[in-house]
């Protein structure tokens, strides 16, 4: 049974259904956790499980938050606590991604993320400040066994939401849920088949294209999600550790589709930083594709994307 549902992949906003037909009633509930708006949809009969999924999000916040002084990651960043299975899983994968991207994806980027602080800043930091923060970044210093951050500060903001979305999907599937949309601020996992709208990076209230996905995750990284503007230039939240500045690869947004939301999350951030040629990174992961919208409006996709996902513009 096909469900027609258009929603908008974005961060910090409520998504909207455009049409639903020929299926059992679905219920959407909204919450705020993981520093973002969370929307979860299931069949009406499964709505009782949505609350449990929200509880899972709150539990994972206590693992991955970088600001909550009781979280596992906070303690590790401060030389305390122990490595738990969740952090180990995400950290191991993140180091693999750092190697694969020659350090463009680097979860030790926290000093630069804090310096740029795009939620509050009104003007860019100085070159000296950037250089100092940049010198504190470097995933090579991290050791998992034996555990040592070696003074580095880890930010899992580019990958943890994907990991958590996968865990919620696992919870739903092992509890008999056959249809669901798990949307953690634009980090989306679908159980069942849905038609999904990709937001225009140029006019984020508009849908740029729709695609049809079944049992897949779709994750978008875009310059329109978090940013400030100074003297006509946009400074966004995805930092290129090689320059110390928000990445400037000519990509306006990239949406990655994969059976694994953690992989889609890390890949969308990585491709966004590295630029359009890095779309080939998708080949290194099973059944993984991407759609890039360039700042000049060009659209680049992996092979057979249009047919595979019934792309409609
Ligand atoms: P996303 O929205 O998934 O593309 O991830 C962006 C978030 O990841 C930022 O808000 C930072 O917390 C973090 N981040 C920024 N730059 C990098 C980078 N080069 N490597 C890894 N994480 C990053
Ligand atoms: Mg990401």
**Protein structure class:** alpha+beta
The protein's oligomeric status is single chain
Q: Helix and strand string, N-terminal first?
A: EEHHHHHHEEEEEEEEEEHEEH
> With helices defined by DSSP (H or I, 4 residues minimum), what is the helix count?
8
The share of residues in helices is 25-40%
Question: Judging from the principal axes of the Cα atoms, what is the shape?
Answer: globular
Major sheet = 8 strands, antiparallel
Question: What distance separates the N and C termini?
Answer: 23 Å
Which strand order do you get reading across the main beta sheet? 1-2-3-4-7-12-13-14
Number of strands: 14
Percent in strands: 15-25%
Mean pLDDT: 92
Bound molecules: adenosine monophosphate, magnesium ion
How would you describe what is shown here?
This protein has 313 residues and is an alpha+beta fold. 28% of the residues lie in helices and 24% in strands. The chain has an 8-stranded antiparallel sheet, covered by helices on one side. The N terminus is likely disordered. Bound molecules: adenosine monophosphate (AMP) and magnesium ion (MG).
């Amino acid at each position: 049974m096909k469900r027609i549902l258009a929603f908008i992949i974005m961060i910090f906003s409520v998504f909207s259904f455009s049409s639903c037909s020929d299926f059992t009633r679905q219920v959407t509930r909204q919450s705020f956790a993981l520093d973002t708006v969370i929307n979860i949809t299931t069949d009406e009969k499964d709505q009782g499980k949505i609350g449990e999924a929200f509880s899972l999000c709150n539990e994972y916040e206590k693992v991955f938050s970088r600001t909550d002084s009781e979280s596992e990651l906070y303690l590790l960043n401060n030389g305390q606590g122990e490595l738990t299975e969740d952090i180990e899983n995400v950290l191991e994968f993140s180091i693999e991604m750092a190697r694969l991207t020659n350090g463009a994806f680097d979860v030790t980027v926290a000093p630069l993320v804090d310096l740029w602080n795009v939620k509050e800043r009104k003007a860019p930091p100085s070159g000296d400040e950037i250089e100092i923060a940049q010198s504190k970044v470097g995933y090579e210093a991290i050791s998992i066994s034996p555990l040592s951050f070696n003074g580095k500060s880890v930010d899992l903001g580019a990958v943890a939401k994907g990991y958590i979305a996968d865990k919620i999907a696992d919870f739903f599937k092992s509890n008999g849920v056959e249809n669901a949309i798990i949307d953690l601020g634009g980090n989306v996992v679908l159980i069942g088949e849905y038609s999904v709208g990709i937001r225009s990076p140029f006019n984020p209230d508009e849908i740029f294209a729709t695609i049809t996905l079944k049992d897949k995750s779709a994750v978008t990284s875009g310059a329109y999600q978090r940013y400030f503007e100074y003297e006509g230039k946009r400074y966004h939240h995805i930092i290129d550790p090689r320059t110390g500045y928000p990445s400037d690869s000519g990509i306006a947004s990239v949406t990655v589709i994969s059976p694994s939301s953690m992989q889609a999350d890390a890949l969308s951030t990585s491709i966004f930083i590295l630029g359009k040629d890095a779309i080939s990174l998708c080949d290194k992961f099973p059944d993984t594709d991407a759609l890039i919208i360039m700042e000049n409006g060009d659209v680049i996709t992996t092979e057979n994307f249009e047919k595979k996902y019934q792309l409609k513009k």
